[in-house]
């Protein structure tokens, strides 16, 4: 999920583009060359890590799909907290690649630790979290669902709200980040308790079933990333700042996300084919999230390593073109994954009674994690960024989230 996320256009860290003044200048790549090189590195690392950690055939760990996905989702949550709410405090002072190594260790270590604490600690007193209890391994999924709601609250806080209201009451990091993390823990836990936990552990009393919950709520996250990252918080920033901006962004993303859910479900139906859609039944309601995670991955990449092109065409036109390009890439990725990659490359099991295989919310979230660790943590270490005359897209100075894109 996406998640992940946690995603800002433009330069992410001051040290992400460090240059040694003693070294002679090298030719600057074009923006698309830099982007493709990042994609190549991320693809190689993602596949290598998958074969080692999760692949049902090649990994010695035997943790696919759970608890691997739970630790993965929580690692993404730590990326959001440490990389964006806290703006890389404690890490950005380190030189590369030490910064990236420390950031990777903290996020993955945090994800594994929380997975263990929820399953073995909380699970010892609450059977909903106990993988040896009545829910079996599904208890890991109960623990993972916190991250679904955390993506909406914490990412929206950064990319849409500018970390309001904490940013207005406190100055500097890590105080703003810690304050936002603490404040938003309350609504996140409430959403998890009301919508998430019952959907898996107590379906008879749930507001909605798991496929519908994941499909709809992930669509809200897509709306947050689309407007807050790809659209640089347009049109919500037209509402002003502070509470007005937060209210406009929250209400707007709920409405836009709901519209996206309906539309993406129809697109997913078309992409998987009518026979597969019929076999999935109500499970097709999940597929806005499955298609959406592919879209979010491409929006992360487009905003951060492809320069969020085009620029200079106006807010609406730029957002429309970026949305179309990234969505087209997402559709191609979705089809390639479900019909080819999942079964034949990643060795994931087939989905019963269909010609599909795998679960994009697992592997594509793994790709999102690798992408964020490399781009945010390592600052695309080893690659030469475009020069100033071929800039990547940066947030305007007066943008409500500009402070999160280039400060320690």
Structural descriptors:
globular; single chain; disordered C terminus; 408 residues; AAT family amino acid transporter
SS-derived structural category:
mainly alpha
Extended strand count:
0
Question: How is the main sheet built?
Answer: none
Percent helix among the residues?
A: 55-70%
Précis, in short:
This protein is mostly helical and 408 residues long.
Can you characterise this structure?
- The two termini are 27 Å apart.
- The longest helix is centred in the middle third of the chain and has 31 residues.
- The protein is 61% helix and 0% strand.
- The radius of gyration is 20 Å and the shape is globular.
- It has 408 residues and is mostly helical.
- This is AAT family amino acid transporter.
């Amino acid at each position: 999920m996406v998640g992940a996320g946690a995603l800002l256009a433009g330069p992410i860290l001051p040290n992400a583009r460090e240059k040694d003044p003693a070294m002679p200048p090298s030719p600057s790549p074009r923006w698309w060359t830099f982007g493709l090189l990042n994609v190549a590195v991320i693809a190689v690392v993602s596949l290598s890590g998958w074969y080692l950690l999760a692949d049902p055939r090649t990994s010695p760990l035997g943790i696919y799909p759970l608890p691997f996905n739970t630790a993965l989702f929580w690692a993404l949550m730590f990326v959001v907290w440490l990389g964006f709410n806290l703006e890389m405090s404690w890490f950005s002072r380190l030189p590369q690649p030490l910064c990236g190594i420390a950031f990777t260790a903290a996020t993955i270590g945090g994800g594994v630790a929380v997975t263990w604490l929820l399953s073995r600690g909380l699970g010892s007193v609450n059977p909903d979290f106990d993988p040896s209890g009545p829910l079996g391994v599904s208890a890991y999924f109960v623990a993972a669902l916190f991250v679904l709601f955390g993506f909406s609250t914490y990412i929206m806080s950064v990319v849409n709200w500018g970390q309001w209201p904490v940013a207005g009451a406190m100055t500097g990091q890590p105080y703003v980040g810690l304050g936002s993390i603490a404040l938003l823990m309350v609504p996140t836990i409430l959403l998890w308790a009301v919508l998430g936990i019952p959907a898996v552990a107590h379906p008879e009393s749930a507001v909605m079933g798991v496929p519908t919950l994941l499909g709809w709520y992930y669509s809200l996250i897509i709306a947050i990333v689309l407007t807050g990252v790809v659209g640089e918080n347009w049109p919500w920033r037209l509402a002003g700042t502070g509470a007005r901006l937060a209210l406009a962004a929250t209400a707007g993303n709920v409405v836009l996300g709901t519209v996206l859910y309906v539309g993406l479900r129809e697109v997913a139906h078309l992409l998987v084919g009518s026979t597969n859609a019929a076999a999935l039944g109500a499970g097709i309601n999940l597929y806005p999230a499955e298609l959406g995670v592919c879209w979010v991955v491409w929006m992360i990449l487009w905003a951060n390593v492809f320069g969020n092109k085009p620029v200079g065409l106006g807010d609406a036109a730029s957002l429309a073109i970026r949305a179309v390009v990234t969505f087209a890439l997402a559709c191609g990725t979705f089809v390639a994954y479900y019909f080819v990659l999942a079964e034949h490359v990643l060795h994931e099991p087939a989905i019963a009674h269909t010609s599909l295989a795998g679960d994009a919310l697992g592997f594509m979230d793994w790709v999102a994690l690798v992408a964020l660790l490399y781009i945010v943590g390592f600052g695309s270490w080893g690659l030469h960024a475009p020069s100033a005359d071929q800039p990547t897209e940066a947030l305007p100075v007066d943008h409500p989230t500009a402070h999160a894109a280039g400060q320690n």
